[in-house]
Amino acid sequence: MARTNDPADVFRYYRIGADDECWEWTGPWGGQEREKRPYFMAARRRQIAYRWVYELVNGVHLEPSQLVLHSCDNGGYPCGCGNPQHLRLGTVRDNSDDMMKRERHGLPKTAVRAIRVLIAEGRTQQEIAALYGVSRETISAIATGRVYKSV
Fold first, then answer.
1. Cα angle for residues 81, 84, 87 (degrees, 5° grid)
2. pLDDT class for 47, splitting at 50, 70, 90?
3. Helices marked H in 22-91 — which ranges?
4. Cα–Cα distance between 117 and 143 in angstroms, integer?
5. What do you get for the CA distance between the two ends of the chain, in Å?
6. What confidence score (pLDDT) does residue 27 get?
7. H or E element: which one contains 141?
8. I want to staple 75 with a disulfide (CB 3.0 to 4.6 A). Which of 43, 70, 95, 130 is the partner?
9. How far apart are the C-alpha atoms of 7 and 55, rounded to whole Å?
10. Domain 7-101: which topology?
């Protein structure tokens, strides 16, 4: 019979370092390329590994609506940080605010400014899109001011 994981086994898959360092996940990943997350199965539950860490360290059971946020911004691939010192509980709003504050959403301000310069120079939207690895529609939205108005 196959051995089932105990929730505490999640720590076997982390490269544990100092309190100020990210703890890198060495176990399996799930999700699409840009949204890969470290997953761990225990107690007949499959969930993101750092959620297990948070639950174990804090002695709580998280509801699906509760998010575990990272102060280090290394929750996704390729790190999947599980250092409890980098984890905190938050809401969807907290996560959105973090993304805006840390510029983890869309394009960095410097890229948007550079795109505007290229548009002003007469480069085609398709050419700029290929240069930045985004869609032509994104470049059009920047050019017309539909997005990144405050940049």
1. 70
2. very high
3. 49-58
4. 10
5. 59
6. 95
7. helix 136-144
8. 70
9. 9
10. Homing Intron 3 (I-Ppo) Encoded Endonuclease; Chain A (3.90.75)
